[in-house]
Each structure stands twice: as structure tokens, then as C-alpha cells.
Write a structure and sequence with these properties.
The complex is a heterodimer of chains A (101) and B (433).
Chain A lengths: L1 H9 L16 H7 L1 H14 L7 H4 L1 E20 L17 E2 L2
Chain B lengths: L21 E2 L23 E3 L8 E2 L10 E4 L4 E4 L5 E2 L4 H4 L11 E5 L12 E5 L6 E5 L5 E3 L6 E3 L12 E2 L6 H13 L7 H6 L6 E33 L2 E27 L2 H4 L1 E2 L5 H6 L9 E2 L9 E2 L6 H19 L11 E30 L5 E9 L5 E3 L5 H24 L3
Parallel strand pairs in B: 2-7, 7-18, 12-18, 13-17
Antiparallel strand pairs in B: 3-11, 4-5, 5-6, 8-9, 10-11, 12-16, 13-14, 13-18, 18-19, 19-20
The chains are: A alpha+beta (101), B alpha+beta (433).
């Protein structure tokens, strides 16, 4: 469980975010129920910094040239539950050398 | 289709969309060239930049007094003679080797001669004849490229490249003073004392900080990228009642999205020591050293062993074939993140289903980059050991570290927090908060 708590924080997945599709009712109470795990993870990462790495994707100098854009409307979607697009990967990082296990 | 005539999206920084193949204003056409294999360009031969031309092994003497007692003056960034105090600097490597040449003109594979493949049979321990007294002097290239003659006390330097990875194309001298690094490491550890392991607290001695030149490859890449997929733009959010609770719902427009562009990546830096590239945080704390990047590699100078005097170094043990996959994947990351500037309209995100990054040209040079390193070997109750680092980027001063934790103390306090939190949580849930 401690590893789970640590891993969740490492990925910046604040436990609260799992309730993004909800209205947040009862969230504060739930957060208190996990307070020991959250505390452990916060201290662990403050001391060990296993979640830290060089952000090559943003810290490397790069210039984009001759950008060609194509944007084509497909459809309107109604009543979606998630705040973010399902499967969105435009912020993915795949070249990190850091691994947790 | 729910909406037959939706408005076209206005992505920031991009010409009004809904069209096909629109051009960013103010930028010129540059149609795609023939694509190249990312790792090796079979159609064009590898070109080598000779970076040790004119370099000499043996006695490197002060131009004014002839002494070999030469070392880096960190305060000025110059080499200084220990006898007559004369100071000078090696040539800037970026200018000397034209490493700042237009990345867009790069094609095929260009490598510095100090980045050539390591030949396994090459000796790691090299013997030189002292030019002053004739004695045989041994240099262990695993840790340095200098040694002192045990007879006449002159310093011998190795500046010519041999295919064992010991002499890189360029070196970035230390700029942060040891006193500054010691203060940074002290401050870093001081903020983490309460839950630190008691043995670490007792044994912590910041004076053990060492200056180390670590091996890296610095890569420039000229690439052409094509990304396509779908993006969503939120048009409305609202709450609906479901039973006793309320739920937030979202409406969004879905678009097919494509971006095609050239990308010039400058000074992508990759560890060229296989040990440092292993960043499994359950086994080591090498991620700490990775975190203190980037370095201002544009200020690197031509390699001169005298910059190593008083410091240690680690030898490169990886070849381009080992490092190319990492560099190419990181280039794809850079391209994916850079293109985010043109898709801000899609505030719910973009799901790229196709990503093609064609590398047209790449330039590799090896470098020694400076790090102040405090290391602490923790012996666990299981008998295993774990090496913790606190590292300071000796150019920017960025500090990062790993401090061993007193697990039982942290678990005890966490349990206490959990007990109190559980009581408070139950009360809040009962109140519906």
C-alpha cells in the first residue's frame, strides 16, 4: 500500500484527481481517510526524490519550422464524463531513463 | 454528425484551420527531403570532425615558465600555472569545431573523433615515457587522463584520442566553487534531517564532496515530423443530478488533427556511461545526477587534460549504437511537446495515433560535464547496500539529492497521521463534506 501511495504521487496523480468525473462531494473526507499514505509518500519523495528526472522534452532547446496544420471537424460529443480526452497522449514522455522498479 | 456546420478551431500560433496543409504565417516552405534511417544513414558516409588535431600527449607546459603544474582556476574558468600564475583558456569547442553550424543543413551522421566506437581490446591503462626524465608513467584512463611522474614529479597528460572513450571531444570546466557546492549540499540535507536515517546524520560529512567530470554525448538533430490523430475542444460543462449526488458533464467537439514540421534539436544531452544510464530508482540514485541537467554545453572548450587536475572523471563506455535509440526517442518527445504550442485549442487533449519522426541529420560529440558529488553508501538491515547521491551541477548550481530515510520513524508518524485522519475523515463523510 505504501508503494501504491508512493507510485501514485510519483506520477503526480494526486489522489483527489480520481474524482474528477464526480462533483467532489465527500472528497475532503476521503482525502483524510488516506492521510497517512499521502503523508508517507510526500515525505518519501521529499527525501529520496525518486520521482525527479531531467525534463529533456521541455528543457532541450528545439526550433520548429515550416509548420503545416490540418484541423477537420468530425462531430460534437455530448455528456462526456471525463474532464480530459480519453487516451490523450500529447504530453506523453517515452524517453525517460528513470524507472521505479 | 450532431453538428453539421461547426466553427473551425482557431489553434494558437497556427493559421486558421479547417483547411488542409495550411502554412504558419511568416515561415517559408521547406518541402520534405528524402527520409533517412534514424540510426545510420546508409546513403551518406559517416563524417568525422577531428577534434584532437594538434593535441599532444606527455608534458603539457606553461607557455610562460615551462612548469607542468597546471590546473583549472574555477573562479575564472581559465587554466592557471601553479608556479607563475599565468592564466589562459582552451579554445571554445563549439566555435573550433563549428558545432553551431546550421542544424537545418545537417544531413547524415556527423561525429566527433572522440565519439568513435570503443574498441574492446584497447588498453584502459596507458603507459607514457616522461619527457623530462625518461621514466615510464602509467595513466589509468578509467579515472583520469593525467598522472604524475614518480621520479621527477612532472605531470603527464593524455590529450590524443585512443578508442577507449577516455578522451572526449570537449570538456565543460567547473564554474561553481567547491565552497558554494558544499553550502548547497549542506542546505539540501539540512532541510531533510528529521526523517533522515540516524546513521546518515551521524556520518554525514559534506567535506567528502568530490568534483567529477561525467561522460555525456551532446547531440544535434535535424528531423522532420508528422503527427496525426484526434483532438477535443470543450464547448460546455454542466452538472446533472444523479440520485443523491451531482455529476459534472462535458460537451466537446472532436477534430481530426495533423501537424507536419521540421524540428531542429540543439544540444540534446545523453549519459554515455552505461552505469549512469541505469536509473532504476529501486537499485540506485542515478536519477539524481540526471535531474541536474541541463548544462550550458555551448561553453565547452577543446579537451585539455589539465582541466581534470584536482578532479576525477568517468570514462565513456557506450557507443552511438547504444545511445541512438535513447536520443531518437527523446527527440520524438521534444517534437511531441513542442507541437503542443500549436494545439492549445484542443483543451481536452490530443490523441496522436500516428507519429513519424524522420531524422535527416545528426551530429554527435562526446563531452565531460562537471558535477560536484556527495555520495553515501547506506547499509541496510538486510545486508544490501544502496548508494545515495547529492549532486550539484557545477555550472548552474542546481542541486538534487537522495537522503536515506529512517523507515520505522516515518512509518510510525504516518500511522499516527492515519489514525487522526481516519477519525476526521469519518466525521466529514458523515457530514457529507
Amino acid at each position: 500500500m505504501l508503494i501504491f501511495a508512493a507510485f501514485a504521487t510519483a506520477n503526480s496523480q494526486i489522489l483527489a484527481s480520481s474524482g474528477s468525473s464526480d462533483d467532489g462531494g465527500g472528497f475532503i473526507g476521503l482525502a483524510f481517510l488516506a492521510s497517512g499514505f499521502i503523508f508517507y509518500a510526500a515525505i518519501y519523495f521529499k527525501y529520496r526524490n525518486t520521482n525527479k528526472r531531467h525534463h529533456h522534452e521541455s528543457e532541450t532547446e528545439a526550433t520548429m519550422l515550416n509548420v503545416q496544420a490540418q484541423d477537420e471537424f468530425v462531430q460534437a460529443r455530448k455528456g462526456l464524463s471525463n474532464r480530459k480526452m480519453t487516451g490523450a497522449n500529447n504530453n506523453d514522455v517515452r524517453g525517460s531513463q528513470r524507472k521505479y522498479f | 454528425m450532431d453538428n453539421p456546420s461547426p466553427p473551425p478551431p482557431p489553434p494558437e500560433g497556427v493559421a486558421p484551420a479547417a483547411g488542409v496543409g495550411q502554412q504558419i504565417p511568416g515561415q517559408t516552405d521547406a518541402p520534405s527531403q528524402a527520409s533517412l534511417d534514424p540510426l545510420q544513414n546508409a546513403s551518406e558516409p559517416q563524417r568525422v570532425i577531428q577534434t584532437d588535431a594538434g593535441a599532444k600527449d606527455g608534458l603539457a607546459k606553461c607557455a610562460r615558465c615551462g612548469a607542468t603544474e597546471i590546473s583549472l582556476n574555477v573562479a575564472t574558468g581559465n587554466l592557471r600555472c601553479g608556479y607563475c600564475r599565468f592564466e589562459w583558456s582552451a579554445d571554445n569547442a563549439v566555435e573550433a569545431f563549428s558545432l553551431n553550424a546550421d542544424i537545418g543543413a545537417l544531413s547524415g551522421l556527423v561525429v566527433g573523433s572522440g565519439s568513435s566506437d570503443i574498441v574492446p581490446s584497447t588498453d584502459e591503462v596507458v603507459t607514457f615515457k616522461c619527457g623530462a626524465c625518461g621514466a615510464e608513467v602509467v595513466i589509468d584512463t578509467n579515472h583520469s587522463t593525467q598522472a604524475r611522474c614518480h621520479w621527477c614529479r612532472n605531470t603527464l597528460s593524455m590529450n590524443q584520442q585512443v578508442p577507449n572513450g577516455a578522451v572526449p571531444d570537449m570538456i565543460l570546466p567547473f564554474r561553481v566553487l567547491k565552497e558554494t557546492a558544499v553550502a548547497s549540499i549542506n542546505a539540501f540535507v539540512k532541510k531533510r534531517r528529521f526523517f533522515a536515517h540516524p546513521r546518515f546524520r551521524a556520518e554525514f560529512n559534506v567535506e567528502n564532496v568530490m568534483g567529477v567530470y561525467l561522460p555525456y554525448m551532446v547531440v544535434d538533430i535535424n528531423a522532420h515530423a508528422k503527427l496525426s490523430g484526434q483532438g477535443e475542444h470543450q464547448t460546455r460543462s454542466y452538472t446533472v443530478k444523479r440520485g443523491d449526488s451531482q455529476q459534472t458533464k462535458y460537451d466537446a467537439d472532436l477534430f481530426n488533427v495533423a501537424r507536419e514540421f521540421d524540428i531542429h534539436v540543439n544540444d540534446l544531452t545523453v549519459e554515455s556511461s552505461s552505469e549512469r544510464r541505469n536509473q532504476n530508482t529501486s537499485q540506485n540514485s542515478n536519477n539524481i545526477i540526471n535531474t541536474i541537467m541541463p548544462f550550458d554545453v555551448e561553453n565547452s572548450v577543446r579537451y585539455d587534460s589539465n582541466y581534470l587536475a584536482g578532479f576525477t572523471s568517468e570514462r565513456r563506455d557506450s557507443n552511438l549504437d547504444d545511445l541512438s535509440p535513447v536520443a531518437i526517442t527523446q527527440t520524438e518527445d521534444v517534437a511531441r511537446h513542442r507541437v503542443n504550442d500549436t494545439i492549445r485549442f484542443y483543451d481536452r487533449g490530443v490523441r496522436w495515433t500516428q507519429e513519424d519522426v524522420e531524422v535527416r541529420g545528426q551530429r554527435w560529440v562526446s563531452a565531460y560535464l562537471p558535477v560536484w558529488l556527495y555520495s553515501y553508501q547506506q547499509r541496510k538491515s538486510s545486508g544490501k547496500t544502496f548508494l545515495h547521491y547529492v549532486a550539484v551541477n557545477a555550472r548552474t548550481g542546481e542541486t538534487m539529492g537522495s537522503v536515506p530515510i529512517h523507515q520505522s520513524k516515518l512509518l510510525l508518524v504516518s500511522a499516527a497521521v492515519q489514525v487522526v485522519g481516519t477519525v476526521v475523515g469519518i466525521v466529514l463523510l458523515a457530514l457529507g463534506i
